[in-house]
Design brief:
single chain; about 250 residues; TIM Barrel; about 45% helix
Length: about 250
Amino acid sequence: MPAKLSVNMNAVALLRNRRDLPWPSVTGLGRIALEAGAHGLTVHPRPDERHVRRSDVPEIRALIDDEFPRAEFNIEGYPTGDFLALVETIEPEQVTLVPDDPEQPTSDHGWDFVANRDMLKAIVARLKRTGARISLFSDPDATEEQIAAAKATGADRIELYTGPYGGCYDTVKKAGNELERLVKTAGLARAAGLEINAGHDLTVANLPALAERIPFLAEVSIGHGLTADALEYGMAETVRRFLKACGW
């Protein structure tokens, strides 16, 4: 089965937040994405609310519950007390834990699973009580030792950070090298019994090669590139284009 597509709504929220107005509507465009076939929605509610706001999160939960019960809600974030409490209230289908500093403009590295194993193990156990699947953000070149430590946390999946791969959009050779790193790490994770997600700077152009080389990829979470394309093609047509790029 091809990788499922989760549409990250942060870029839509960032555009909305430029004005004290309710448009573009995060839930409205989320509805269009799900109607077009997206398998879920992703949000990353940062402490400063520069993207998705805390008030958006229950609204998206209600949208999925009321209109798209087969879709999944994925909430990303650094596991602060506030974040954990939010997740426990909303009960998303998936939680993706990222090692972001609050000042970071975007996620740009994975966890050091060895150094943070005990901390992550406790958090994963806590969040699993909500019934959520737990995914941990991983560097594209994680070692076998790092992957073993990720597995030891009790997490279900890793999410491969594909930023370096996406950043090679104008250099075929470099993109190929970055893809090989992702393929190797995905293989280590699968051998350890972890499922694999991927996300960051994925596009219609670079998704097919990723999907071909990692045919067991479970999910891709895409925001910036998909939102940019939606300005040209509209959200519904863009979702259909990304689904096709995934192999649907």
